[in-house]
Amino acid sequence: MFNKDKYKDFLSESTTVITFSKIHPTVSAEKLIINGVKRISLSSHDDIFLHNVQCESPFYAQILWDITHQLHLGGFIYIEEPLQVDNLLQKDYYHQSFELVEVIDGCIYKYKKVMPLPIEKDRGLECWSFCIPVGNDDPVFLNKCIERIIEINIPHKEIILCGDPHPEFKFFDKVKIISDERQSEENHITKKKNLLVNAALYNNVCILHDRVLLPLNFYDAITTFGDFFPITGFQSFYFQDKHNFLPRKYSDFNTISQDLTKEINIKDVVRENTKLISKLFYCYQHPARSHFGHDYLTGSLYLTKKSLWTKYPQNENLFWNDYEDIEFGIRISSHGVPCRINPNTITQSMNSRSVIHYYGYVATNNISGKLTMSRSVTEQIPFIKRKPLFRISKEEARERIYSFAKKYGANKNTLFQISCSSMSGLSRYLIIKKVISDVTVKLPYIEEFMADFSANILCEPMAPNEYEDIIRIMFSSASPKVKKRTLVMSFILNNQLFHSFSSSPFYKKNDDWFIEKCKMTNIGNFISAINLKYIIPGVYFPHGIKEVYRCLHGTTLWKE
Description:
By secondary structure, the protein is α/β, with parallel strands linked by helices. The protein contains 19 helices and 19 strands. It has helices spanning 53-56, 60-70, 92-95, 140-151, 189-199, 218-225, 260-263, 274-278, 306-311, 324-334, 394-407, 412-419, 425-438, 446-458, 464-474, 480-488, 491-499, 519-535, 545-554, and strands at residues 16-19, 48-51, 76-80, 98-104, 108-113, 127-133, 156-162, 176-178, 204-208, 212-213, 231-239, 247-249, 253-256, 282-284, 295-297, 301-305, 339-349, 362-365, 371-374. The strands form five sheets. It has a five-stranded mixed beta sheet with strand order 1-2-3-5-4, with no helix packed on it. It has a five-stranded mixed beta sheet with strand order 8-7-6-9-16. A hairpin with a 3-residue loop joins strand 4 (98-104) and strand 5. Helix 11 runs antiparallel to helix 14 (446-458), helix 13 packs antiparallel against helix 16 and helix 18 crosses helix 19 (545-554). The radius of gyration is 26 Å and the shape is elongated. The protein starts with 15 loop residues before the first strand and ends in a 6-residue tail after the last helix. The model has no long low-confidence stretch (mean pLDDT 92).
């Protein structure tokens, strides 16, 4: 129990005490409900006493972050914990700004703020740099992404691309383009993001992928959340269907079960370590929850201060699909920097990868911290028209399968069946099954075969953990029948089949992902708003159904 009389010898009347312990009846107190999305705002610049905060609250890292950035120079923070715990003020991000003055009674640590924290020089929310790593593929999503950023009402903004946009990109006159200094054909996403932030003119940085559609109320959501935010994101969703009935949580805020710092040297991660990371368990984290040192934002979108990113840049030893987002989130937490969600708006992903979901389900920590496998109840409705899965046409997909089959010795009858296949979800699966049963490959060419299998059959990369499992079987002494069954029964291939069983997973026109404005879509958005607000776990909306509906409507990729 906290009793102010115990501390009267060194605490003044103006000291603000923050505690999760019971309060002595003689002490007046204001009660606040704290969760992972709640910012702490100080009404004055008084000294702070944190009493049993770290041991009693999972939100201690966010609380400390918020109050330390508001504390005035020369101000004091007192910290008392019942157990010996790692003191965050000793972590790299804080330690130069806070000096340990004394230890009172052997258990109360008194710190003085002797210099501003690194991001305090980036004060203000009026100026934003939007940073997008790009490739030279069809710019249909990049065009929409940039168009939306142009529409957002912000006092000052710039848009920077890193890479070589396709010639059909529409906004060359609206953006600044920097070279990605490409040294290889691999997608060096970490280097691109670092180059983008270094080139940013403004102190507030939004780093996003070109498939992310930002909300029109971006600036309102930011200002409502407040300044001096750590590494922050928005909740993100992907709609699998043409009328927004099938919302899926997609690439925003995750958590990893294991303590990664105990598994590897988190400050010196290289590509070889990703094999271990891939075997660990990670899932979506509820935005209102926190597990500091385990939570991370996926790489789709980061809101940050330029000075924070340049102090802790992404690890350029890692490339796309190397779990670089997990490494980044856990590494910055080891320096004292938390990750969190701004709940005041959402983004939508304009397309998706099949490996992100398990037959429509996602693994999520719900508000109670219980692991759940969940999906929207509307996923069970069979006649809802689905969006394409791949950013290629069925003609190109047919050519890829034909090229693969011919290279690895399929007979003429199989090649003929490929050439006349309708390439719907089921017919594609059956023709792939036929091809795999027909082809042969010698052991020295297994890795080349698997690369061709990903590019020409799956049309997308496998998750590294599944790839490792399959490649181990392919190099084993298992029979050819077992190896072929492993490929045909792979999770990624069957998940693709689930996505598009009766329809084609390939596009006819490059706006097939866009949504028609019609009554059916309004109904879809309304039903999805109810699903997201009340039913689907792992989602948090502090506002009512009308506002959730407006968020969905405002981030939908509408047809013109």
